[in-house]
Amino acid sequence: MRAALVGIDFGAGDFNASVEELSLLARSAGVDPITTITAKRSSPDAAYFVGSGKADEIGLACVDQNIEIVIFNHALSPAQQRNLEKRLNIRVLDRTSLILDIFAQRAKSHEGKLQVELAQLQHLATRLIRGWTHLERQKGGIGLRGPGETQLETDRRLIGERVKALRARLAKLRKQHETQRRSRGRSHTFSVSLVGYTNAGKSTLFNALTKAGVYVANQLFATLDTTSRRVYLGEEVGNVVMSDTVGFVRELPHQLVAAFRATLEETIHADLLLHVVDGASPVRMEQIEQVNLVLKEIGADHIPQILVWNKIDAAGLEPAVERDEAGNIARVFISAHTGAGLDMLRDAVVEAAKAAPERSHLFEEQDDAEPVDAPDGDDADDASDLDDAHDADDADQAQDAQPAEILTSTIVGPR
Ligand SMILES: Nc1nc2c(ncn2[C@@H]2O[C@H](COP(=O)(O)OP(=O)(O)OP(=O)(O)O)[C@@H](O)[C@H]2O)c(=O)[nH]1
Ligand SMILES: [Mg+2]
């Protein structure tokens, strides 16, 4: 699908990086950004977000270049979106809807799908006002997935009922997780969550550490569901549970943050965060900041964190370990791709696990049903699969379908 991107520079932040990110988001959603239209403004126009002259310029470009959809790098009000669609006679998407769309395409687990549907319905509800249906006959493509067109024709009351039902099911799932976590408490295994900005290389690193074969792609939000594996880290600490999580992005729709709050609680219970950074990105410092903001927002900023400076192959750096003044490991420089520095990172996790207050639990008998391969080496080959209950569509009914060690999806972002 041919798309035109629109970015307005309000003079704050790195404008080019932000537009480039929109282009990556668009490609991740499966559209083809043909042209990018930019403008400078001091504040958004109430009716069209851009000025009416700019709007007509966009309209001309769409006709000229056979554009099928216009994607704004901003949150549009329902009225602005409607006005633009009427004036340009073309589907208009804002950044929020674009991200929601990607999430809808990617969600695989039962819970993930429920959460995305909830977020979409809440987003939709704000748009369900008279006059919004002028484009409803257009079919296919992005912006039309999810709740389904027939539901778009139903009224707020029906959506409200569905939202209520979804909330109830998610609450039930959350309760189950809580129970699982409590039973897990008896045989606490040191847990490590990989967090970081989208595309930083979390899944690549997860695979390198666990040999798990998780989907890796140069697109945003390649991972939407958390995968957890048990990894054997040598005699001293035994097994740890490692979790790959969804990436963070700036301006994540707040509906999504709210909808996924249920599962955030799982990340908050990690013993160690490996904060993966794309060390080759020019905006890495801003991304680190964004991720830390989110961690603070969900109350995970107290968890010990190691910055994993990834992609050193692309950045022309050497593997290394950096410590803070207190002697704790602060940064490890690695390449998940070439494997450089991975041994240092494993040692760093071992060191953190040994220093953790829960250490006395590490050797306790584990009594959950999930069998662990007998570890006979000193590396991560013996990780056992812990994520296979995710796809059961009735997972919320089958309590025992979910192994005790699962740490579920994490979707977060600043508003
Ligand atoms: N050069 C280089 N590229 C890497 C390295 N690690 C990952 N990549 C690439 O970075 C891109 C993103 O990798 P992923 O592992 O999917 O990133 P992620 O953080 O899991 O991304 P999301 O799941 O989308 O949040 C892929 O194209 C990887 O091949 C590295 O060490 N060096
Ligand atoms: Mg990933």
From TrEMBL:
<dbReference type="InterPro" id="IPR042108">
    <property type="entry name" value="GTPase_HflX_N_sf"/>
</dbReference>
<comment type="subunit">
    <text>Monomer. Associates with the 50S ribosomal subunit.</text>
</comment>
<comment type="function">
    <text>GTPase that associates with the 50S ribosomal subunit and may have a role during protein synthesis or ribosome biogenesis.</text>
</comment>
<feature type="region of interest" description="Disordered">
    <location>
        <begin position="356"/>
        <end position="415"/>
    </location>
</feature>
<feature type="binding site">
    <location>
        <begin position="310"/>
        <end position="313"/>
    </location>
    <ligand>
        <name>GTP</name>
    </ligand>
</feature>
<dbReference type="GO" id="GO:0003924">
    <property type="term" value="F:GTPase activity"/>
</dbReference>
<dbReference type="GO" id="GO:0005525">
    <property type="term" value="F:GTP binding"/>
</dbReference>
<feature type="binding site">
    <location>
        <begin position="196"/>
        <end position="203"/>
    </location>
    <ligand>
        <name>GTP</name>
    </ligand>
</feature>
<dbReference type="InterPro" id="IPR027417">
    <property type="entry name" value="P-loop_NTPase"/>
</dbReference>
<keyword id="KW-0342">GTP-binding</keyword>
<dbReference type="GO" id="GO:0046872">
    <property type="term" value="F:metal ion binding"/>
</dbReference>
<dbReference type="GO" id="GO:0043022">
    <property type="term" value="F:ribosome binding"/>
</dbReference>
<keyword id="KW-0479">Metal-binding</keyword>
<feature type="binding site">
    <location>
        <begin position="335"/>
        <end position="337"/>
    </location>
    <ligand>
        <name>GTP</name>
    </ligand>
</feature>
<dbReference type="Pfam" id="PF13167">
    <property type="entry name" value="GTP-bdg_N"/>
</dbReference>
<feature type="domain" description="Hflx-type G">
    <location>
        <begin position="190"/>
        <end position="357"/>
    </location>
</feature>
<protein>
    <recommendedName>
        <fullName>GTPase HflX</fullName>
    </recommendedName>
</protein>
<feature type="binding site">
    <location>
        <begin position="221"/>
        <end position="225"/>
    </location>
    <ligand>
        <name>GTP</name>
    </ligand>
</feature>
<comment type="similarity">
    <text>Belongs to the TRAFAC class OBG-HflX-like GTPase superfamily. HflX GTPase family.</text>
</comment>
<feature type="compositionally biased region" description="Acidic residues">
    <location>
        <begin position="365"/>
        <end position="397"/>
    </location>
</feature>
<keyword id="KW-0175">Coiled coil</keyword>
<dbReference type="InterPro" id="IPR030394">
    <property type="entry name" value="G_HFLX_dom"/>
</dbReference>
<dbReference type="InterPro" id="IPR032305">
    <property type="entry name" value="GTP-bd_M"/>
</dbReference>
<dbReference type="Pfam" id="PF01926">
    <property type="entry name" value="MMR_HSR1"/>
</dbReference>
<dbReference type="GO" id="GO:0005737">
    <property type="term" value="C:cytoplasm"/>
</dbReference>
<feature type="binding site">
    <location>
        <position position="223"/>
    </location>
    <ligand>
        <name>Mg(2+)</name>
    </ligand>
</feature>
<feature type="coiled-coil region">
    <location>
        <begin position="156"/>
        <end position="183"/>
    </location>
</feature>
<keyword id="KW-0460">Magnesium</keyword>
<keyword id="KW-0547">Nucleotide-binding</keyword>
<feature type="binding site">
    <location>
        <position position="203"/>
    </location>
    <ligand>
        <name>Mg(2+)</name>
    </ligand>
</feature>
<dbReference type="InterPro" id="IPR025121">
    <property type="entry name" value="GTPase_HflX_N"/>
</dbReference>
<keyword id="KW-0963">Cytoplasm</keyword>
<dbReference type="InterPro" id="IPR006073">
    <property type="entry name" value="GTP-bd"/>
</dbReference>
<dbReference type="InterPro" id="IPR016496">
    <property type="entry name" value="GTPase_HflX"/>
</dbReference>
<feature type="binding site">
    <location>
        <begin position="244"/>
        <end position="247"/>
    </location>
    <ligand>
        <name>GTP</name>
    </ligand>
</feature>
<dbReference type="Pfam" id="PF16360">
    <property type="entry name" value="GTP-bdg_M"/>
</dbReference>
